[in-house]
Amino acid sequence: MDTYRGSLIHSRREFALTQQNINVSACGTSYSPIAVWVDMIALAANGYADLYTLLDREHVPIEHIKCPLSPNSRAEVARARQYRPVLLHCWGPPGYSVTRPVIPEPELLIELAQSSGTPFLSVHLDYQPAIDGERERNAVLTHVRQEVAGLKRLANMEVLLENVPWYPWLNQPRWATDPDFITEAVNGSDALLLVDTAHARVAAWHRGESAEEYLAALPLDRAWEIHVSGPRMTDEGLRDRHMALTEEDYTLLKFVLNHAPNVRHITLEYVGRREKTAHYNEPDGPELLAEQLARLDAIRTGSVQVKR
User: Fold this and answer.
1) Domains plus CATH for the chain?
2) pLDDT at residue 136 above 70?
3) What is the pLDDT of residue 282?
4) Exposure of 306 by Cβ count < 10 A (0-12 exposed, 13-18 middle, 19+ buried)?
5) 235-279, pLDDT tens digit by residue?
6) How far apart, in Å, are the Cα atoms of 164 and each of 109, 149, 282?
7) Which partner from 28, 143, 284, 299 sits 20 to 30 angstroms from 272, CA to CA?
8) Are 206 and 217 in contact (CB under 8 A)?
9) Cα–Cα separations (whole angstroms), residue 154 to 11, 69, 234
10) Residues of 40-57 as b/e, b for ≥16 C-beta within 10 angstroms?
């Protein structure tokens, strides 16, 4: 067990049922003690002010803190490490995607991969011609393979690629969010998948597809992490807003869990009220964050996978 500020953290894997007989009620049969490994999905949350308020005053059912949320990555990681290991999502350079021409600040990546305690590195799969240059689909896939290989060498760990939203008014080809493109990028680079359900909802809405069909077409067998947050409707349609989860978001999370057998982490990306979301006039504060984490904790507890 590792001790951090705010609570006592146990290993994701808990050894169970070794000191008792197991009764199978359907047939009334008792078996001798056996070893059963219970692999619990870990829970994480964005490292922002309300989370640290909760961690300072009560038990919070998370195993990791996701950061950085800004270019001030060293300070964010250092603060998070006082409480939990980090899930390193990019490493500071703003707007990074594996489609960018070069890997920025490689020394910082090496440093934070080592100091953060992260089990893997996650990055965006977000091809933008205005930044990355005009390329054909196959050229982008070739570059992604090279970029992932470079990230793996630098960080010395697995790399997860995250699906992104699609907005028709931006200069981004629709194929860059096609599930088959994402599948080829993940499989071709021997990467893993980070499923962002809010991004999937937004992309599917603007593509005229159902979120469930869109998600089901992704390589969910390679998904290790799920990001959840609440998008919101605007005059331009559904937008990614990192707001509180709605019932639709919880339902979609359960859908993904039922189709993604290898998920290891669920991360709540809620960040509270910000300037661009204040006009929604929704509840805010540490209590709302705690409520969402409690529901996610119950969902992940119900998704325990038993390995004999």
Assistant:
1) 41-303 (3.20.20.150)
2) yes
3) 77
4) exposed
5) 999 999 999 999 999 999 999 999 999 999 999 999 987 655 656
6) 22, 21, 25
7) 299
8) no
9) 27, 21, 40
10) bbbbbbbbbebbbebbee
